[in-house]
Amino acid sequence: MTRNEQWHIEGNAAELYERYAARYILGPWASGLIAIAGVRAGERVLDLACGTGAVARLAAKEVGASGRVTGLDLNAGMLSVARSLPAPSGGPLEWVERSALDTGLQSHSFDVVLCQQGVQFFPDKPAALREIQRVLVPGGRVAVSVWRSSGIYNSAVGDALRQHVGAEIASRFCASRDAPTGDELTALFVDAGFAAVKLRVERMIVRLPLPEDFVLGHLAATPVASNIRALDSVTRAAVSDHVTRELARYIDGDAIAFPEEINVVTGRGGVA
Ligand SMILES: C[S@@+](CC[C@H](N)C(=O)[O-])C[C@H]1O[C@@H](n2cnc3c(N)ncnc32)[C@H](O)[C@@H]1O
Description:
Radius of gyration: 18 Å
Distance between the termini: 33 Å
CATH superfamily of the domain at 3-149 and 176-207 and 259-268: Vaccinia Virus protein VP39
Low-confidence stretches: 1-6
Bound molecules: S-adenosylmethionine
Helix content: 40-55%
Order of helices and strands: HHEHEHEEHEHHHEHHHEE
Mean pLDDT: 94
Strand content: 15-25%
Structural class: alpha/beta
Shape: globular
CATH class of the domain at 3-149 and 176-207 and 259-268: Alpha Beta
Number of helices: 11
CATH architecture of the domain at 3-149 and 176-207 and 259-268: 3-Layer(aba) Sandwich
């Protein structure tokens, strides 16, 4: 098992994931992924590794009442938060607790499959891509995003954890950024038989609350939550202060603002 396959959160971490990670770190990319996939009214959309459903909810608005959206994730806590959030006006949303490697969904039953920041956690990526092929209608579209680098904020938090907590905890926190490169992801798509495979790079200036208001809450929404909870208050403050110092040059009013990049790979299902 690689460190990525261990990405798993427990307890109330899913609520905190929605409040910190989904709202500030992942949510802002959701509309771009949906636009790249060209989601249209009436379509059936699968959001794979949906987490608390940021992509699924936006997709439901796009497909409207004549379409439908399924969010699939293997973490029950994430799905419980997804279910608890107000449904947007639009297509019906259903939530499925299952692995992306074996979705149990009907073959050829989706026009579009989206996956935002999920593929890096799949223990068998070729199997997951074959599963996407299976559930897509022939010619159906897929769009998958992964981080392009460890990123300015995550690197600073990783450094803080390495210095004040330990290398193993830092490595576990950084695992979400340990994604396939654009070329590796493209090759996975080609090998799985997708047509019209295309890689693009998307960029954004990300704005996060100041580290003193964000870092410890965010860490409580990650797989290292219990390790951070177990720290004494002096060490917790040292982690937060370290990030504040390292990111001082990115302060912009009451936020930090910095550039971030993702790889997005798109393709068309070809299996009849
Ligand atoms: C970083 S979160 C991204 C969630 C969501 N796509 C978003 O944009 O907020 C990664 C998600 O992948 C899910 N996940 C990891 N391995 C999975 C698998 N094998 N099958 C389904 N979901 C998986 C986790 O439970 C988690 O919700």
